[in-house]
Amino acid sequence: MSTKISKVFYGTLIHSLSLKSLEILQNTLLGIDCFGKIAFIEKDVLEEKILNEIIVQWKFPEEEVIRLSKWQFLMPGFIDTHTHAPQYPNAGTGMDLPLLDWLKRYTFPLERSYSSLSFAKKMYPTVVSRLLRNGTTTAVYFATTHLESSKYLAKLVKQNGQRGFVGKVNMDCNSPKDYVETLDDSVKSTEEFINYVLNLEEEKGESKLVYPIITPRFAITCTSQLMSSIGSLAKKYDIPIQSHLSENLDEIEFISELFPNLPDYTTVYDHHGLLNGKTIMAHGIHLSSKERKLIKERDVGISHCPNSNFAICSGLCNVRQLLNEGIKVGLGTDLSAGYSKSILNAVRNASIASRVIFMSHSSNDNDKSFPHLTLPELTYLATMGGAELVNLDKKIGNFLIGKEFDALLVDPNCNKSPLDIFDDFDDFERIFEKFMFLGDERNLKSIYVKGKKVSGTDFEEVNLHDKELLENLGELNGEICSVCKK
Ligand code: GUN
Ligand code: FE
């Protein structure tokens, strides 16, 4: 028992063991080692005496045990498998147009502004800290086409202690004149970006928290040559890929005009070497059974972004069908087509989308083959499902010994809590469900990534004022810190 223990919690843990199985462990002791990994979990530790013995066994001072109060619990951090950091300033606006018009009118003009690094420095800190504060311990980000701003985003994610995948966007056709790259520049700057992010981690000899991800925006804005070239980069560096697939009917129609010799949208990506077990495709709403078969064969994950699908009227994604066919599914916010920054909101909208599908099917007859998504399933999608999409399911997503501790300390009874507890009536199962459907960032007391507290209502943001950290954030060049305004 030589492992050095850095933190011990005593209380209730709630996590997913599988899609169908949500485990609630009360009176449990969980210890984290100095590398941020879960070193031990002791269940049903009822007696103080036993608790003391365990503490002696692990040589941990009892007074430092973090004892959760009555209705508090620990759950795994949320994984946002698809979001656009540069679009956050638009969140909550511009929901009056379908995808292709929405991109032209609202999104491209905003993203273009990130050609200025100082604009990126003003905008990006807000979205990263907001996502973290909402319990997103891992985020899969699209940046923009701009190399320097994208590097800055990757550095910022790391500096905030969030786990993340950051992609410099590729687009070399069917884009506005002032927001498009040449093929050559796009490939070159992508390779430079990859090397930058990989070295960002190695500088300090730490284990990885931030990874590069190959990010063709979608097949409409990428030439065949570009898709093939960056597919080769993904292979060369063994890194993941993300894009959009089958989100909107006009988009699909345009794809069939651009690639008349390929049978469908999914095959376009496959043809260019972009589909494998490390690929995340956002949406996948209107896929044919042939396309779903290919997705399953290639082991591609689908990021379900229901808020976005409702907000810009893209359609209803049948997650039950994807799951039944053995396709990996996670949740995404898809800021800012989706207006919410929170995976809790994605959970709620995924629930509603599945109920709408259920109602539209069961109105004809008594067909019960599309039941709505259950609480254990929704919890799984928000945590373990996301971990599978980013290929970190052996590392994060639930509480197993040896996994890294990415977790939320939830306080359903916090000051000004948005949910009410009825002590003699509620139990943990009900309170967990209430939190998933009614809770918000006020309930997130502490947010941990790899064992380290990085956000939450009791997190001292003063950390961000730390001079060394600010210096590490890099080249602030006398610019104003978004936190201290100095
Ligand atoms: N398809 C291509 N680009 C985008 C984007 O920025 N958001 C969404 N929702 N779909 C896209
Ligand atoms: Fe998107």
From TrEMBL:
Its cofactor is Zn(2+). InterPro entries: Amidohydro-rel, Guanine_deaminase, Metal-dep_hydrolase_composite, Metal_Hydrolase, Metallo-dep_hydrolases. Binds 1 zinc ion per subunit. SUPFAM superfamilies: Composite domain of metallo-dependent hydrolases, Metallo-dependent hydrolases. It catalyses: guanine + H2O + H(+) = xanthine + NH4(+). One of its GO terms (molecular function) is zinc ion binding. Pathway: Purine metabolism; guanine degradation; xanthine from guanine: step 1/1. Keywords: Hydrolase, Metal-binding, Zinc. GO terms for cellular component: cytosol. Its EC number is 3.5.4.3. GO terms for biological process: guanine catabolic process. Residues 73-454 form the Amidohydrolase-related domain. Belongs to the metallo-dependent hydrolases superfamily. ATZ/TRZ family. Catalyzes the hydrolytic deamination of guanine, producing xanthine and ammonia. PANTHER family: GUANINE DEAMINASE. This is Guanine deaminase.
